[in-house]
Amino acid sequence: MAYKISDACISCGACASECPVGAISEGDQKYEINADECLSCGACAEVCPVNAPAEAE
């Protein structure tokens, strides 16, 4: 299941630089993950200082 970034995102960009497939991009209010490209590897969650990325339900 793909990851999703919660409203806790502070738009620091740490997650985007760690994504091995480039599935994360800057959105209007927060970073966003393209679910079709996400590998569910968790690299984004490991580097996020506010634990914003999580597996989507």
Question: What is the topology?
Answer:
Blueprint: E1 3-5, H1 14-18, E2 24-26, E3 31-33, H2 43-47, E4 53-55
Antiparallel strand pairs: 1-4, 2-3
What are the low-pLDDT stretches, counting only 5+ consecutive residues below 50? none
Largest sheet: 2 strands, antiparallel
Taking the alpha carbons of the first and last residues, their distance comes to 8 Å
SS-derived structural category? alpha+beta
Succession of helices and strands: EHEEHE
Instruction: Tell me the strand percentage band.
Output: 15-25%
- Overall helicity: 10-25%
Find the count of extended strands (DSSP E, 2+ residues): 4
Give the CA-based shape: globular
The average pLDDT is 96
Strand order of the main beta sheet, please? 1-4
Roughly how many Å is the radius of gyration?
A: 10 Å
Helix run count: 2
Structure explained in plain terms:
The structure is a single chain. With 57 residues, the chain is an alpha+beta fold. It has two helices and four strands, in the order E-H-E-E-H-E. Strand 2 and strand 3 form a beta hairpin. The termini are close together.
